Amino acid sequence: QVERLSSLPAQPQPVGQFPRIRMRRNRADDWSRRMVAERRLGPQDFILPVFVKEGGAKREAIDAMPGVSRHTIPSLIELAEQAAELGIPALALFPVVPRELKSGQAEEAYREDNLCNRAVAALKKAVPEIGLICDVALDPYTDHGHDGVMEDGVILNDETIDVLIRQALGQAAAGVDVVAPSDMMDGRIGRIRDALDAAGFQHVRIMSYAAKYASGFYGPFREAVGSKSALGRGDKRTYQMDPANGDEALRECALDVAEGADMLMVKPGLPYLDIVHRVKQEFKMPVFAYQVSGEYAMMKAAAANGWLDNDRVVLESLMCFKRAGADGVLTYSAIEAAQLLRS
Ligand code: PBG
Fold this sequence. Notes:
By secondary structure, the chain is an alpha/beta fold.
């Protein structure tokens, strides 16, 4: 029967009825578009990166990141409450370290009572339902602005890891839920995992900045945390990845998976969606993308000029991460996006 049907000669299309398959039918109504949507965006998809500074004075605006502030610990607690109420699962915390505490060896990074650790402890106490992620990297703490310790202009890999371990242990002791090594030293995931486990922090998760590129899109962030002037005209190409490379990102991820990473991250975001997609396809584990400061600044600058519709591009860009395969996005737009989705 089936065979006979398929061997029938093709029927000529009656005039006026071409084409038979009309993709636009499913798009014709809002209910229908919702019914066939392949992805849904929600507040659970967002991680909010936040900046915290010393002092009781008020929060300060960051010029290149309209809508984003350097918070004091009390104002950060208010923000965390708002994020939690909106259903945002976690914050990623970045300290703004006073210049006088920066040094060549980044000792401040592992001081038990440093700003980052105090903020973690205060947040955990005040808003226990929100997850906390801390960057593990030395750039906020070094006087040269690099992510590692430097000797004769060279960033030392293994010596840096010794310091990163102490930093991660301090964060774990303060109560952080996830440590996120963003330094790109070789072998740090395994050594941090072992050190956490040996110290009784088996429950602390590792989100690895596994594929982190040497990108020009970090500019506003470096200004926000004050590592830009320290770094000067230096760049991070001897440890962060070359934007030309994709296969190399898979090798980076494979190593971090083997060393015990619980979650992988790709950074920056939109220009690297091909990497997000490949990493998700290859490893089938939680993959996050970081829509970085420069991406945020581009959208805000164009919107401020009336060249883009802010609300549309914010939600569209976040949806694109999900379509590419990301399980979540670190985004400075987390609060506004969650509010837009609610309204
Ligand atoms: C530091 C770090 C950077 C960012 C997150 N962690 C900057 C850098 O690598 O120079 C950038 C985030 C952003 O641009 O939003 N290790």
